[in-house]
Predict the structure.
Amino acid sequence: MAGSGQARAVIELFCKILEENISCVIRAETLRQAKFNKQSATEPLWKLIFHVVYFCTSHLPHSKFKPLMIPALKEEEIVFVKTQLQKWGYIMRPFARLPHDFSSGSRELLLALGWVIHTQQVFDKIISSWSSPLQQDLMEFLHQKGPSLSSESQPCSHLETVVHTPKDKIQRQLLLCGKLRLSLRRLYMTHQALAGLKLTICKSTEGVSLLADDHHLSPLEVYLLRYPDSMKKMLDELEKDNARMKNLLDWTDKEHIFWEWMTSVLTLHNQEKAYAASDTLPAVEEVYLPLPGAVEKEIVAARTKLRDFILKHEADIEQMEQLLLRKKVSDVEAVALKHQVDNEISQLTQRLHDCGRGWNWGSEGDLPQGSTECLTLQDCPSETSLSLPKQSKPKYVVASAQAMKTARQARILEDVRSEISRLEDSVLQLETELKHMEKNNLRQLHALIEKDSEVICVQPRYCKQLVL
């Protein structure tokens, strides 16, 4: 393990990086006090963990982080930290039972902080959110001088008058709405003017750039060239940014020393861990996740359903496993499968023959012409049940006889199914045409009856449904 001097320097570097990028001030001495579970380090560590968790939840790549300024933590912030850590997977009973009055638990907070830093890759997110001061917006750079309170931003004293009657309240609301509408119009006009100014700058400085990716100067660069006095402020920001990046680079080289020190904290925690002391903690709710009340019943029902499903299909699963593990199918199973396929083909062929189409199974010369490509010489074995046309026998057979016969039977089945589908479509089309012809004949019959009033026509009962 590294010496105490190196560990102290790395801890100070750790605190400095968090202060520069997350805007959370903490001393290295506070972390060292938390190692020995001092009460004075509890509240600062709660603040530090809250800011780190807020940074992780609101982090966006390549965007500047805006810290949240909170003077003092309340119970809501502590519950937020516990809930978020439990969502990330930090399910630790001692941490969940920490009190909300900052009376104890500094070492547990230090261990939780190390877990968040490691699992959420906080320093990688800090590096990904880095942006150069030259890439910031012009208005942001100008407002860093300290916003001066103008006359328009001063509170209006005449609006602070006491309002008694409903009429006065309505008039005050109308006045505020009018001022708000006027401010929005001014803001929109200012935005349009700023966009036009940026476009003019881009067109005027086209072909001149300080960065390789740009083809023109930015408004901030033009402002710096126009007002050279502001260059000093930009240089100061660049120096601060270089110092930030140097600290991050130093951290990547010395990070292992920090984790060695955290290992010593964990070792000390395990050595001094007392189970009786945990019972003296106040009764605090341990889990803050929004779990439904019937989650236990749902889990039990899901497990029961899964067990019943496995037991129901256990025989099928075992049979599939046996088929997968076998290298070949037994002769008895092959004969049974062949007999089953032959029966299905015979039934389908008989259905086609009854419809007036298809061929007689085993007859010579009655094969369908559309399936000549399915019954080639190479596909049929020597002991096939179909009589082939008189042609020369093949010199060799590429695949086994059983495999070729199975493939042939599968193709025949596919042809039979397609033929049945085509016949069903034809029957449906004929039925549609027949209904259309009946309707046309009924129309013509009604036309003839209307022309000759002496004719009496009694329609059959089934034709009444077709009358328009």
In short: Residues 401-451 form the longest helix (51 residues).
